[in-house]
Specification:
The protein has 264 residues and is an alpha+beta fold. The chain folds into 2 domains: 65 residues, Winged helix-like DNA-binding domain superfamily/Winged helix DNA-binding domain (Arc Repressor Mutant, subunit A), CATH 1.10.10; 173 residues, 2-Layer Sandwich (Beta-Lactamase), CATH 3.30.450.40. Strands 6-5-4-9-8-7 form a 6-stranded antiparallel sheet, with helices on both faces. Strands 1-3-2 form a 3-stranded antiparallel sheet. Helix 1 crosses helix 3. The longest helix is centred in the first third of the chain and has 15 residues.
């Protein structure tokens, strides 16, 4: 539950509607909502009037509204690496023929902002726009490993450490040790830690000054191309991440103005 007053609570409700991934009835929302029936209904009405939600009177369902879609598109264009990295992802995808993900950290979680499918796609959790765990994905660990120490420590406390597979790192100490190794090695692995049979290599996208902008990964399976096959692609992955970072020099990074004002 949000601690940011009315606006924060309204955003909680908006997140709940969106999390269903389909139009949802009031009863289903109430079953998972921390708010009383009258409060939830009031927020739904406000969000609908503001066109952030749409209500279907025939089906009696709520769904994400078109105004939110417009805002999301603006955020994607202005605050996402995706437009900047598009050509680089296309080129890497053509070179390797495997699935490529571009991601950024969002409150300690992985936000997938773009994706290129393999020539022979593999069914997996990640899609552009989806949010996934950072502690058990290659791209998440690659980003966490290159954060400032205090920020990294804070985000380690926010991970759920749910055990998805026998390979999942399930404690902060285990994850911290892995992140230290990644920082030395320069790239991360997902060794079937989130989904059985799915493996990946990942690198951070870093500015010349060491600021972490996002992460880039190549995904395969234990059979195709296997970990040895992914390892052979590390130079391609690092070169593409560097190209994206170089193009990012002129990009207006989210939060940059605030950081400059505070002298950080």
């Amino acid at each position: 539950m949000s601690g940011d007053g009315t606006v924060g609570k309204a955003m909680d409700v908006l997140d709940q509607v969106a999390s269903f991934g389909r139009p949802v009835r009031f009863a289903a929302l109430l079953a998972v909502s921390p708010y009383p029936k009258a409060t939830l209904y009031r927020f739904l009405q406000t969000l609908t009037r503001q066109r952030l939600l749409e209500y279907d009177p025939e089906q009696q369902t709520y769904a994400v509204g078109l105004r939110l879609v417009r805002l999301a598109h603006a955020a994607w264009s202005q605050s996402s690496l995706a437009p900047l990295a598009r050509d680089h992802l296309d080129r890497l995808s053509r070179q390797i023929g495997l699935t490529v993900h571009l991601a950024q950290l969002d409150n300690g979680q992985v936000l997938y902002v773009d994706k290129r499918n393999a020539t022979q796609p593999v069914d997996m959790f990640s899609q552009a726009g989806k949010v996934g765990p950072a502690y058990c994905t290659g791209v998440g660990k690659a980003m966490l490993a290159f954060l400032p120490e205090a920020e990294q420590a804070r985000l380690l406390t926010q991970q759920s450490y749910h055990v998805f597979t026998p390979h999942t790192l399930a404690t902060p100490d285990a994850l911290k040790a892995e992140l230290d190794a990644i920082a030395v090695r320069g790239h991360a692995y997902d060794r079937e830690e989130h989904e059985p049979g799915i493996i990946c290599i990942a690198v951070p996208i870093l500015t010349e000054g060491g600021r972490m902008l996002g992460g880039l990964s190549i995904t395969g399976t234990t059979k195709t191309p296997g970990m040895a096959g992914l390892d052979a692609l590390v130079p391609h992955l690092k070169a593409t991440a560097q190209d994206i970072a170089d193009d990012g020099v002129a990009w207006r990074f989210p939060g940059q103005d605030a950081m400059q004002q505070t002298g950080t």
